């Protein structure tokens, strides 16, 4: 089994480590490198893994996971004193392109990913792109790591990670925003706020579960609960009249374009 070193021990690293151990990885195969002593102790106590503040310890790993903020990637790269030629570098740093990482780390195998926050619950939806130096075995290893905390979708062009950002990377916020408005509207219609919240959350959970576990397309599921001239029909007609589809498309385009701009920066 490959040995892993996580550079950074924050929430996303913790989610990935938890998923890996739950899927059968042995704690001795995982090391976290983080300058924060409290963070290191928490991860050691929680998962029984090794934790240190010495970046050089990453040299003993087969796979290095960069779980740090984009603005510190260059600082992290400068701390490596070892050749990474035989290793796989997995980055979860948003906006840092393969070209930038190759400039920083050299011509090594790099897997760039775009996870989202539901990974913290083991329900992540992550996009993956690998560079030409990455072998099939390394690609499979990266995929297995991602699938320990959710699903993995591999894209064939790096720029498609910006589309992944628009769909799943930023996607949870769209659903949270819809939930906010449904709770607000339910309260305005006379429900107690706690009742509007409970009904909205359970409805969101139920609808998502139905869509996720059914072979039926969402369009058909919607049609099945939209009786002609009924209550749901009135709501759907109102949404369409107000340009609901165009609003979503415009928001996702704005997200994709901003992701591309940040990548260039």
- Strand percentage, roughly? 5-15%
Classified in CATH, the superfamily of the largest domain is: NAD(P)-binding Rossmann-like Domain
Q: What is the third-level CATH name, the topology of the largest domain? A: Rossmann fold
Estimate percent helicity: 40-55%
Number of strands: 8
Question: Rg to the nearest angstrom?
Answer: 21 Å
Oligomer: single chain
Description of the molecule:
The chain is of the alpha/beta class. It is 52% helix and 14% strand. The chain has eleven helices and eight strands.
Write the layout of secondary structure elements.
Layout: E1 4-7, H1 11-22, E2 30-33, H2 37-47, E3 50-52, E4 63-66, H3 73-78, E5 88-91, H4 98-105, E6 109-114, E7 124-130, H5 136-147, E8 150-154, H6 160-169, H7 171-188, H8 193-213, H9 218-224, H10 231-241, H11 244-264
Parallel strand pairs: 1-2, 1-4, 2-3, 4-5, 5-6, 7-8
Antiparallel strand pairs: 6-7
Helix pairs in contact: 6-11, 7-8
What attributes does this structure have?
eight-stranded mixed β-sheet, 2 domains, single chain, alpha/beta, Rossmann fold, 11 helices, ProC C-terminal domain-like fold, 265 residues
The gist of it:
With 265 residues, the chain is of the alpha/beta class.
